[in-house]
Records
---
Amino acid sequence: IFTPWLIRGSFLQRCARDITNMSQQAVNGVSHRGRVLTLDSMNPNVKRVEYAVRGPIVQRAVQIEKELKEGAKKPFTEVIKANIGDAHAMGQKPITFFRQVLALCSYPALLEDSKFPEDAKQRARRILEACGGHSIGAYSASQGIECIRQDVARYIEKRDGGIPSNPDNIYLSTGASDAIVTILKLLVCGEGRDRTGVMISIPQYPLYSAALADLGAVQINYYLDEDNCWSLNITELRRALSAAREHCNPRVLCIINPGNPTGQVQSRQCIEDVIRFAKEEHLFLMADEVYQDNVYAEGCQFHSFKKVLFEMGPEYSNTVEMASFHSTSKCYMGECGFRGGYMEVINLDPEVKAQLIKLVSVRLCPPVPGQALLDLVVNPPQPDEPSYATFMKERTAVLSALAEKARLTEQIFNTVPGITCNPVQGAMYTFPRITLPQKAIDKLGLVPDMFYCMRLLDEEGICLVPGSGFGQREGTYHFRMTILPPTEKLKVVLQKIREFQLRFTQEFS
Amino acid sequence: IFTPWLIRGSFLQRCARDITNMSQQAVNGVSHRGRVLTLDSMNPNVKRVEYAVRGPIVQRAVQIEKELKEGAKKPFTEVIKANIGDAHAMGQKPITFFRQVLALCSYPALLEDSKFPEDAKQRARRILEACGGHSIGAYSASQGIECIRQDVARYIEKRDGGIPSNPDNIYLSTGASDAIVTILKLLVCGEGRDRTGVMISIPQYPLYSAALADLGAVQINYYLDEDNCWSLNITELRRALSAAREHCNPRVLCIINPGNPTGQVQSRQCIEDVIRFAKEEHLFLMADEVYQDNVYAEGCQFHSFKKVLFEMGPEYSNTVEMASFHSTSKCYMGECGFRGGYMEVINLDPEVKAQLIKLVSVRLCPPVPGQALLDLVVNPPQPDEPSYATFMKERTAVLSALAEKARLTEQIFNTVPGITCNPVQGAMYTFPRITLPQKAIDKLGLVPDMFYCMRLLDEEGICLVPGSGFGQREGTYHFRMTILPPTEKLKVVLQKIREFQLRFTQEFS
């Protein structure tokens, strides 16, 4: 189990480099000048990028799956991938109505087919009429199809109790990640002490650290309070900000609510405090709200930053600059593969808007099937429509199962010695803390929770992501696990992790 | 007709800025500190980005379309958008087989439907089996679905007469643009005189200049030879390269073949010379081959850079680093909205490959419907399959119509005084040269061919892109027009441009 990637970065990188360079030159006699593009001559920012959700553990999991296919004997028969929020891969079925409309849009001849309900056909016709040549194969406007942006604005108004939303402030995107990176790209500038600093929570979703490394921005960590259900604490925000002002120019505050990987749901009060803080400190707010339908815990409720911002009055709603992000990949639909999403911008400078539209136009447009899917998410079947009953049944089934699994996960983990787990108030993940025996921590050159997860994968076939991939307080160790496996399978997973934790603790005590 | 965006950039930008700042502060009382994100405080590289294909002319065209809808009286009843290679928007019908399979993948219940041919069902089943949970709503591997990468490799081998292609060298992407920007991102580094320089043709497809501005790379222009059918001339490459070596570090050579916007198809000899040049000068080759099925002219033929590279022997095929790009958006399918594409990398350093996979994993995966569509493009119906006849009929109809329109366009333009037009050997565009009267050129503060195209749009409802958006030799003027409108409509367009050209010349003589 001395898999190379368990060794800390730089050392491995060096020897790996030497080895491959030698072997490669042997293999195909590269000219004495060597290659144009090598690890030494490539973009250094890209080298700094890390993305644990699809890191070494997952690569190893894929390899094990292949070995199993080829008949290798293992202590398990399948690898359970609880590393990524990929609902359909975990067996969740697509929402029938959504897929009917997408089929109609893909192959409009089906509009003559009596098997499809009228409301599905009506949605498909409306989308097709908004497409060039009535085909989802045409480019759309770079900002997204206009009638879909109007539907998104209506959805937001309804969600936020009537607070107006302007379709001109809606930008459709290739999943939420695309929009998040685009806004960060607009914001990052300056050199040295003037370099843009961006505040992100620790633990964080590694898209943020990856994008900041890529853009060469300064990452400013603020720590969530594990002892208080991973809540966000303004004092900690102040500490992080004033420390950062010593060496960079903090301009952006990123919030993920409900939290990924930590599953907390922010109180209205907390959101109000964050907004006040952003205004006082002159920060651009980025609100990652892709889990807005994923709230499970008693007494918890999703409050959008937009709604709270406007309820705080014009002093805030006319000045605080904000972008909020949503996606088709999470919530009850879990349609990750379509890469659909949108952002709403508030108080964005009109000239910057023009720059934003210019920037997105270079990539022509977000995938049109993803735009169509997003339109259905924000404009689902209504009570008077034929598909309503089935849609609600399917939607409720997914969300109540998730709520059940969230409770189950917290309960069982907290019975395991050496594992402590906050309630999964929302989103799709649990981020329990694991107590590792000193002998395991001391293992020379190994990242302790990476070592733990790699052992778990090899021994039980369960694929998790080490806490180190999301960031955690020095000396603490965690892992992220999705709550997406079907309930019965999840129970098995939790049981296996329990046994592994006991075994692991014993082995290294 | 003194539309503001006709005024040269910087001046307009300044006054526009002052105006909006004032009005905005009036509107919503921005705090005295002003906004966090303004034109002055945003990423300067983004400001340098330009993308004429969706620039001011197109924005004006969209506005005119709205005015027509609202019943405005114009000298025309519709706007004909010949500015962008968007086949479906111009009325081209999707390939039936492709859309049948996509419908089956979107709504697998249709697999039971006898209306769908067996080969379509078989393709859909194979794709679904390769998806997590058998759903195109699951994330795929970041590099793309494995069996699709295998099909792409087989397609390339067949295309290149058996020269081997390795699926591990295939990376699926969100259209070709995504892959092009990703490779450039890996390559760009260094500061000052060490900054990476990238050679691009002039005229160019503005994705390249936009990506280089965004990445802060140095753009190195080499001019295509308009007097010789826009052919690429090695002497000109040498000139551009040695000039650039004075102030940057040239590392990359970008080629578009068949050419966009210029429509030339490179001879095998020319490709060989380019490859030899790249090896001698130690340049990374980027071959944009998205129009590989779009070759019309007698005696012209598409040669892939990969094939020529390998035919030149191991001295080249083992050393020259290259990436080649393809897309679902062009050729006979024209499925732009799905954002499907792939790149094949040759001789890429194994460590850089690992970095590339890490980088693409941050965006999770390319849109899965686009991946599915790409699979059909590289693995279309075979002679023994039920859908073959219809597929070939549809494919041939599109390609022969394009060939006919390519001839027609050249013919007619060359009868117009003041317009000279090279043969459209391939791709989807013509880039004719226009002779403008001195009075029009002298119009204070106006970009002459932008002025010409804006007038054409306002008077005839025809939307073209000014040559200045692609780059052209100082003192020459052009426009890019797609040959995509249906033949009858194209004839009308050509006739209208003819009349406009005569009128315009008279008015300013």
Note: Confidence is low (pLDDT under 50) at residues 1-31 of chain B.
---
Amino acid sequence: MYLPKRFIDLAARLGGLPGIGPKAADRLVFYLLDQSEEDVQELADALVAARKEIRFCRQCGNFTQDDLCEVCQDVSRETQLLCVVEEIRDLAAIERTGAYHGLYYVLHGRIDPIARVGPAELQLNLLTERVVAGHIREVIIATNPNFNGDITAMYIAKLLMPMGVRVTRIATGIPKGSDLEFADMFTLTQALEKRTDVET
Amino acid sequence: MYLPKRFIDLAARLGGLPGIGPKAADRLVFYLLDQSEEDVQELADALVAARKEIRFCRQCGNFTQDDLCEVCQDVSRETQLLCVVEEIRDLAAIERTGAYHGLYYVLHGRIDPIARVGPAELQLNLLTERVVAGHIREVIIATNPNFNGDITAMYIAKLLMPMGVRVTRIATGIPKGSDLEFADMFTLTQALEKRTDVET
């Protein structure tokens, strides 16, 4: 106990955050104690303000400080195209590509038989209401291409297809820039099965 | 701009901290928004309290919430043994070994000719006063074994030796558990020159 209690307390809290180990936490405290009181106060205020003011978009489940999120408020979006994702971080990943211009629906979860999460926990009635009320033309299911994501996709597809909406699934295959020799056998099998004609 | 302003602001602040890149910052914000308001408030309070209440020990320059730090207040310490380090993080590294039971003097810097930091900037008169007033028997200079640390050590040694105190320098050599073949030539040269007799 060669360091004051406040130091140890802050380091323990920072060390409990994801991706920050005990050594990195100590280094952060050393750094923060070297900053001005104003800067540290501003960081603390930013933490509290973010947690207090950020909520879920009423329409799509994205983060927002308002009633509707930036995406739902954006009038340039294709409003008849809906992308279903498991988490907001997946929405963020898709937005970073700049390749998608439709709207979203965030499930905030997935069907997970081992964790006993079934369709009932996902409030899928909000999704079906949205598809009807939003005159959605196509639903792109972008849940993760793993066991839970795939069964979630299958369940949602079966739920929505009778409603006359086009339901698609993001493509799986060999990632761009990677090597065939390092691809796992399931991915490589999928890539062979879902091969596409070469366009010249 | 698919995420609210508060999110982006907090992620930018966290991403400005050492060891936290933009992706890790985003992940931290996602995590923090998933915690209770109370937990985030407590983290913010811990930040502000640490910065406000932690100051430098009047005697040795370590962090403390009091006038004297935990080490200086510890009556079980060898009070005639003084270890000089550049920064508090060096003191922390030595404390973690559990191998040292004396007191410390933190320079909060080092002589650095390129950055135009000379002996005058280090307030070494506080060190000499301490050596006299503390009846110090031995001063272990544990500045870093690099160019700036070595000239700082040399300067301090020349300053203190006329005062009749024993002045020592931490050993340099091949780190325990490492391979000779990967040691740099300066370290290996030092390790040869400073070889010690084998005790059986």
Note: The domain at 5-53 of chain A is CATH 1.10.8.420 (Helicase, Ruva Protein; domain 3).
---
Amino acid sequence: MSVSRRDFVKNVSLVSAGFGLLQPFNLPAQSGTPQLRLGFIGVGLRGQSHLQMCLERSDVAVKVICDVDDRMLGMSKELIRKSGKAMPEIVTGSDTAYRDMLRTDKIDAVIIATPWEWHKPMITDSISAGLKYIATEVVLGITLEDHWEVVRAAEAANAHVMMLENACYRRDILAILNMVRQGLFGELVHLQAGYQHDLRGVKFNDGVTPYNSGVEFGAKGFSEARWRTNHSVHRNGDLYPTHDVGPMAMMIDINRGNRFETLSSFATKSRGLHDYIVKKGGKDHPNAKQLFKLGDIVTTHIKCANGETIFLQHDTNLPRPYSLGFRVQGTNGIWMNLNNGIYIEGVSKYDHEHWDDANAWYVKYEHPLLKRWG
Amino acid sequence: MSVSRRDFVKNVSLVSAGFGLLQPFNLPAQSGTPQLRLGFIGVGLRGQSHLQMCLERSDVAVKVICDVDDRMLGMSKELIRKSGKAMPEIVTGSDTAYRDMLRTDKIDAVIIATPWEWHKPMITDSISAGLKYIATEVVLGITLEDHWEVVRAAEAANAHVMMLENACYRRDILAILNMVRQGLFGELVHLQAGYQHDLRGVKFNDGVTPYNSGVEFGAKGFSEARWRTNHSVHRNGDLYPTHDVGPMAMMIDINRGNRFETLSSFATKSRGLHDYIVKKGGKDHPNAKQLFKLGDIVTTHIKCANGETIFLQHDTNLPRPYSLGFRVQGTNGIWMNLNNGIYIEGVSKYDHEHWDDANAWYVKYEHPLLKRWG
């Protein structure tokens, strides 16, 4: 069953809002509810997370799933069996088998959750096949030209490509975005954020269990260790900027009256991944000889057309607690999420003028939008 | 009375450690204690703070003070009278009168606490006059060439020039430096800090009281507003980097086997100072027409020869709580002072892997060096 574009857009925005949230929606099942017909390219662990959320919805029908990995397909079939939903068509057998499922008489939209280097060809192939609604895991592509290819293809076909950047939908980010739009921070001046997540236990495993289980990667690794780690071997740069730049871009209207203009990026030496292999696998493990191009911390500055600066960090190779390290600063105040501190001139009442000694905790807020921090 | 170089160096290191600390030393007075003979160039509010500390010591004799401002000289004389110490010689009358006091038969050492642009000539004039021990408020000079002039003069005369950067002696910085040197953080990889201090109430006043009292500056301002604000009018850059880069430089041995190699710096638009004038003085105040070159936030990246990156911020024009925002990160862990959080792999026990939700507060430490954070 097909749906009208208008209903579809309404539905897909609901679906989009659900991606990546920890608590999926539980809408009551209704007979006769229009259903969005979905195809999945990639049902690894990330794709299965999206699949599970879709299986819990009455307004989505999973029509076809595609993967090249039998273990992942088996796990996905088990999820579908447990849901009681109809078993979708299974497409597999080769790296390009996904093209067989990209037909608008089967599906209205596709969700892509594959290794990064596959996103661009899968997006453009989906558009070429006539699909108008493509949701993809981050990133859109590897090179700048990859991204332009996606933009050109989408614009030529009037297709909608949505990157599933869940950080844009964090509750704190949406609250701060609302405050920004209501002018609480004044005119924004400077923003910071980072993908600061110790991924050593993701980049390496024992080839069987996904996390913290060993020091293998590539052909001997499982799940993300199989493909993602190679990007740390061969590339030095901010490999994964959307968790941080996505929310920032919304707040200062990037490509909606503002744009990134100038960029400067620095990388540190590379130590963390080698150290992890030696610590966990011993200095004689064959991977202890592996060189990694990726600097442990990559910092990037961006100057925007409207005069703001953005500071980004990519920090995935060292032991550290998780923090996206958001900072939103304007002419009236500042929010930083590391200390959960928010200061708005004339609104926040601090016992002490310093943040360094954790005095943010004694702040008293009187503004209704700030009650959460009170 | 003169002192031997060896005793002097011992004494001056005690004095140096005291500069900028909130609690001055209270050594017992001893008759016959060798005394360091000090001269002061500049006894404005900052110089008076140093003067007061020296007056409380029995091993320092203030022999001469110099300033061009009668009000500041009067305040200083009052401090000296209250201390019961002998009144020093007073030198005043012109911008170059200070040269009259720079004679080694009068003083062993000089403390310079004048407007920034005067530091370099006063340092080099002190060295030319034969003085071997010169302590100066930050910064050493305005231009890169200023700094080289100081280095060349000091090396040629075997003189010692100490910049009185108090952030290097913060208790937390000294504790972290000790941990760094004991290897707790492993090999250092990335460092951050910033001069993040809302100085609007310092850059502007009513010409009579120093802080938060008006929107005048330059000839109509008092104390720092009289001279410091002009740097925000005419210059765009990190005007005051030593609070942040000083402690970082110690931790990674800059000029002791390591060095700054590459630098990139970005400035935001300038809004904060104008906004402050309008908010406090009204849009019709003459200073509301003043343009300021200084971007509200200036961010600077440095890559070091040993592969570390440093990230600095200069953020003095916007409403914000004070924080120097230190971050010290190595192959074994990370410290950030905004949340007072420290994580060392295998040592820190977190209830939760995330810092974002303030779980740093629930950390339990077992390492003896970390008890302060326990």
Note: Residues 5-18 of chain B form the longest helix (14 residues).
---
Amino acid sequence: MLSRFFSLRRQAVSSSFLAEKLSYVRDASWSYNLVSERGISTAGSERSSGKAFADFSIFKGKAALLMSPVPPTFTKMDSGHQRVDKKGVILLKFIPAIGQRKYDSERKQFFALSATEVGCLISLGPDESCEFFHDPSMKSSLEGQVKKTLTISPLNDGGGYMFNLSVMNAVQKTNERFTLPVTKAEFSVMRTACGFVLPLIMGWDRVIGPHLDRTGHGPPEQSAIKMDPDLEWER
Amino acid sequence: MLSRFFSLRRQAVSSSFLAEKLSYVRDASWSYNLVSERGISTAGSERSSGKAFADFSIFKGKAALLMSPVPPTFTKMDSGHQRVDKKGVILLKFIPAIGQRKYDSERKQFFALSATEVGCLISLGPDESCEFFHDPSMKSSLEGQVKKTLTISPLNDGGGYMFNLSVMNAVQKTNERFTLPVTKAEFSVMRTACGFVLPLIMGWDRVIGPHLDRTGHGPPEQSAIKMDPDLEWER
Amino acid sequence: MLSRFFSLRRQAVSSSFLAEKLSYVRDASWSYNLVSERGISTAGSERSSGKAFADFSIFKGKAALLMSPVPPTFTKMDSGHQRVDKKGVILLKFIPAIGQRKYDSERKQFFALSATEVGCLISLGPDESCEFFHDPSMKSSLEGQVKKTLTISPLNDGGGYMFNLSVMNAVQKTNERFTLPVTKAEFSVMRTACGFVLPLIMGWDRVIGPHLDRTGHGPPEQSAIKMDPDLEWER
Amino acid sequence: MLSRFFSLRRQAVSSSFLAEKLSYVRDASWSYNLVSERGISTAGSERSSGKAFADFSIFKGKAALLMSPVPPTFTKMDSGHQRVDKKGVILLKFIPAIGQRKYDSERKQFFALSATEVGCLISLGPDESCEFFHDPSMKSSLEGQVKKTLTISPLNDGGGYMFNLSVMNAVQKTNERFTLPVTKAEFSVMRTACGFVLPLIMGWDRVIGPHLDRTGHGPPEQSAIKMDPDLEWER
């Protein structure tokens, strides 16, 4: 337990820089927000309806890691119903350090975890590792030019994991590496928060969930009647 | 851990077909949606109020498995209150493969998991198996003609499960079999998503939950006064 | 694993009476609803705003167990804010069997689990037992006349628990006993559903939760400013 | 198991004082509410919109512990979107006992747990300890004058933890200590309730969650299109 004690002391100490770091996070997530705002600049006035940005951010010596969920997108069908168009993800943003508690937002790299990759993350055992490969240009003529590899492997001091991201660019002949130790406590936040959003990035809260108006004999129940076990039985 | 590493490589590779597969899922869930729309075609304009469809889908060599929740249905009582009429389920749809990443939606089979069967699924230990028997014609004159058996048993490589569905039809003299290996990561998604919807298919989010308007001295509190420990104490 | 297999067969078979049982549950919960409606008969027309009843019900040879959550009640303060008046509970209703799949709703007994008792239930290890004592007349002149004892102890076949409720009435010289085996799958439903409602019976979803309107610079944030770490720091 | 049995008996007995204690809690949280209301006295009429207070409270021989969540605060950006300004916390309030079931609310001490500290709390193994250091005057000229140390260490009887808070004031030359045994059942409530609010104090329910209006082709989906894997792919 002593090692754990010390590792927590270290965490406690590092957390004494929290205020300063947070102010930096605001800067970082500000430019981050600008990106996404550009993305939605055509969306009109409804945009001011309280769309929010919130990261879980970890700042370490060599790099920072910002994690945030991305909702799924839905397509409206002629019937007026909707079905998932693009599934949601949990977006990881790695930012390299360029000095003591200074991080270069220009050189950030993204890695988007799918539902199954999130499932792998939150079910990792204490001694287990996992590795994910992404090709941003998949199915395009550029396929294979850029290779991203995320490896999550256990730390020696109980319970934490080392996050390694490598981004190889065959054209630019570059290979960027990000290395970030995640404590057991930080990983527990990831596990809990990812478990909370996993059904939401799958869009299940739209199929069934408190946000549905289910008062009275609503259509959801009507349709459910056709979808319930009878559907199976009637075959 | 090496075996795990490799199994994850395999997963990573297979996930490089994700885009294509998803487009196929859209086709599949499209016809799927049509079914349920027919079911609710009489429900009128409120239908366009954002009813949504979202599956968790797994595509393997011999079959595909699509999983999605089905809300419970409620009956309005003279009092204006509601009680559960039909309990919700988690619907499994098995589709046989008819070629490389081609699946025949016409030959799909459903299996609807009850709350207790979901409880069994999400509490499965690493070495445990479970088996469910359904008779779609239960309590009818056709009872026993069709027998469905779903078996979930552990895979050798750490953490995954094999899903086996057998549908025996004594009249048509057919016995369809679906076999699908589910990785630990995929099962973790099932476990998390099923844990999220379990209270919702039971309808508990209607009895107590954020979607209830609980501002001020609302009736829920009034009724709760009669239902709280005093109810026990006053006996 | 074989024993588990068999126990699941038994469950599967018993589940083939599900339809019949459910129809019975409807009868049971109907009278149940009447009770609670009488309790709220003065609550007026708002009552028709979709208050719902939903049990998790287990029917066994000697008794039935119906479990359902009860929301907390809140008191409005002069400030217009609210604070918890009565904490919510999870209500257990035991009904004795009087024949094959017949249960005598007249002889039901209630046992209301507090948040901490729910915490004990959901954290029970495979070999652990727990025992709760309630005195409905606590702090009244009748204190000690009626003693309720709920004991939950592990079953031999892996993962299930035996629920025992004893209600001793010193005045009527009666001692009613209810004994109910709960399978691992059924207990997993209890654990998951109780975990879902635990924060809600504590009223935490009113302090912080999706149902709060948090758009714009809302008062919740204003007050949070006074309640956040600065409150600690400023001391 | 016997020791556990006895510990639970003790708990059951102590719970027979629940009613009295709760009435006391109401007194305590009343003054507590006054504090926070003063904090928001300028917030205007919207305040009556159902802001609520709810603690999880534990009353022991030497001290009482009240736990409650504090939502994050958001800053509106020119774009109309919002980003987290101050992260939420889980606030611990320690009150010393001054007699049998009497607690001196004037001498209370606060300790605010950050998301990562909550992550540490809920992932504590049965034999693990953790320790947190806070300096309320951090980054001010008074830095180091007051030192708060919260230590959580396992109890000998299975599953509980001892909470120790020490508040050293170098100026007032005082060192207040609070010691509180938390049973396994009580800690299970903490773990479950903290797991429920952790994503909420991070503000993730604002980024993605049922409380978002996601009907139709809403902007959240629009923006998501820019944030989803394509963002990664397009780099």
Note: Chain A touches chain B through 65 residues (CB under 8 Å).
